[in-house]
């Protein structure tokens, strides 16, 4: 595993080549834009990075390290956004709508690329620069930052959920949704911890749950180009799975109010046997409940079709350049550093965030250094589903979370209502504020 002291490029790029490429990119950008700094002799350009408050402090360290590594070209200040994606998007949209020139580097949820690109709030990377910035990255992650065949955002981290379980309670991990509920029911009858912790509040996480269930049943919410509703038999199976959990002993009494961090906390207290969540829960458990952490096992997300792989929804964050930033060349250079190998390793080990650099998933030093579930994450990413790709995604997501909430009320009747609501959302002429 490489040293984390000085951020550098991805595997396969020499330091000299990386520096040369940065210089060339800066010269081209300055020639095209007439300069993007604060002026000669005035010190480094001050960039602002809008990103959520990652709890391990990895992002803040990356900003400091990249500022130092720029040799006085720029400094990166971090503007912390709310931890929930809905709150993050709201703040970004308000500032961008006001043409805020401080919006230099934006951490975007993977579902926002189409919306922000269509609105003209972020700028695409030139083709040659896009190839360099994404060299060696997972193709699935790169696709999340691409719209209309142009890279608009560079993957910072990817993400996908696994099934986390208690090895001291479950002899082998369940492979299907029904097996998971049966195991939970057995544990409940024995008076042992048995809850399945999963996102059920009325927000984006509940939409992700529904999307993962629909995909794992062999279906999708919208067609490939995001223009028509496809919900069919797989969506019915997804609703039935939600109802089965809601009306079983496996359901945490507070499920309808739970988000990812609520699931993490409940699991750490020892009341649950299972958790469907992202890998950030692992370093957290190691810090907060080391004894429990020793009993944590991991497996693929439970499928709805026996014998077929599950399709957990891909997540993560990408870094884009704000359209109103006067420092585009420096922002691009900073993004290359922030998404570099050393920073991705630290984000993964300290924060649990899956890297986008593909060869890390077979890097034994990285795996032994604190990412033992790398192979499981890689497998899940190969089978991952995507959320509907449409500029109207926010409206679609809101309709799903609203119509099927709370989980105990999800029904085939509401699924019929959802079809019409999504169709209306696709006809929306504006963005959800």
UniProtKB/TrEMBL annotation:
GO terms for biological process: maltodextrin transmembrane transport; maltose transport. The lineage of its organism: Bacteria, Bacillati, Actinomycetota, Actinomycetes, Frankiales. One of its GO terms (molecular function) is maltose binding. This is ABC transporter substrate-binding protein. The keyword Transport applies. Keywords: Signal, Transport. InterPro entries: SBP. Gene3D superfamilies: Periplasmic binding protein-like II.
